[in-house]
Structures are given as C-alpha cells and as structure tokens.
Design goal:
Strand order of the largest sheet: 1-3-2
Oligomer: single chain
Structural class: mainly alpha
Mean pLDDT: 84
Radius of gyration: 18 Å
Number of strands: 5
Shape: globular
Order of helices and strands: HHEHEEHEEHHHHH
Strand content: 5-15%
C-alpha cells in the first residue's frame, strides 16, 4: 500500500493513488493535495478541524450554538432538519462562518463539513437566495460546482488507495465506513466513482 502522497499532481499517475476513472481525477487530486498540505498519509483518518485550520479565517459551529429564537432552532431540528446539512457565510470582516446541522449523525456532518471546506478552499462562487413576495425563495445552484465540492470532500475522507486495499481484502462496506468515520452510503458512492465495484464482485 502507498502511504505517502506524491508531492505534485504530475507525479501521481501510475502510483496507485488515482482510480481508473479520469473524470474523477480532479476531485482525487484536490483530496490528495489536502492530505499533502496536512502532512498525512492516505492511510490516515482525516481530522476535520485540521483541514479547516488550513483556511485560517474560518470558524465551524453547530447551528444549535447560534443565538436564535427557540422557534427557529426547533424548526431546524424538526421536519426541516433533513432538508439542509450545512452552509458557509461570509462575514463583514472577510472571515467565513460554517454552520452545520447538529441534528444529523456525525458521519453525515463529516461529509457536510468537507463539502463546505472545498467550496471555500477552491474559492467556489457563492449561492444566492432570492426571497419572493409569496414567502417562498429561490436558490442559485451550480451543479458542477456542487459535484466537485462533494466529490473532493468524499475523496478526502475515503482515499482511493486505502479503499481499494480494503475492498481487495474483503472488508465489508460497513467495516470500511467505520474505519473512515463516514456513512455506508458514502463508501458506496466512493466505490462507484472509483470503479471498485467490479473488484468487489470478483471478491
């Protein structure tokens, strides 16, 4: 297994850290760049706080710690809780505030925070929300930007090299999820985009 992260993107081909899916390589390289900057191997479980420390001016808090009227806090923990996971807000001083839904399980929070991290790290354009006269709202969404942020976050949490080794060793999706601190759904997603399901079927 390859433990270290090759320093430059041009040096990674053929080292086993990239999956046989070139359409995924941008996300994989974003994730490997993060591990390189953190000085951690592809075998290490990612510590979310360490990643955000690289941004310098970003603070992460659960929405339950916001000073909100109880009715609004209850709203986020009620039926609406499944509709949102997290958001990043740019403050007047130029710093960023990342808020996550603390009613979600830790595995989902980890995926949410890494998606928001890559939005900030890659300087993605911000979504805009337009409030309409009838009380509804519209949000601008760039689906390619969302794909890259989510895909990069997933690759950072579940690096291909270690995932491939665990699949080859016969580890179950649940076992892999436990090692990386993610959901089984995220492991399944990673197995799909990295073309590892064929290897699993052979096992």
């Amino acid at each position: 297994m390859i433990n270290s992260v090759p320093a430059g993107r041009g040096n990674r081909a053929g080292t086993g850290v990239l999956p046989p899916n070139p359409t995924q390589w941008a996300c994989e390289n974003n994730a490997l760049d993060l591990r390189r900057d953190l000085g951690i191997s592809v075998d290490s479980r990612l510590v979310i706080a360490d990643a955000f420390d690289l941004l310098g001016t970003a603070a992460v808090i659960p929405h339950g710690e916001l000073v909100l009227a109880e009715m609004f806090s209850a709203h986020f923990r009620g039926q609406a809780s499944q509709r949102w996971s997290g958001m990043a807000l740019r403050l007047d001083d130029g710093s960023d505030l990342i808020i996550y839904n603390d009613s979600h399980p830790e595995t989902r929070v980890r995926a949410t925070l890494m998606e928001e991290f890559f939005h900030l790290r890659l300087n993605h354009p911000r979504s805009r929300i337009q409030l309409l006269e009838d009380g509804s709202h519209k949000r601008t969404v760039d689906h390619e930007v969302e794909r890259i942020a989510f895909g990069s976050g997933a690759a950072a949490l579940v690096p291909f090299c270690r995932l491939k080794a665990m699949v080859a060793a016969g580890s179950s999706v649940h076992e892999i999820a436990r090692v990386f601190g993610v959901s089984s759904d995220l492991v399944t997603f990673r197995m799909n985009v990295t073309k590892l399901y064929s290897l699993r079927r052979r096992r």
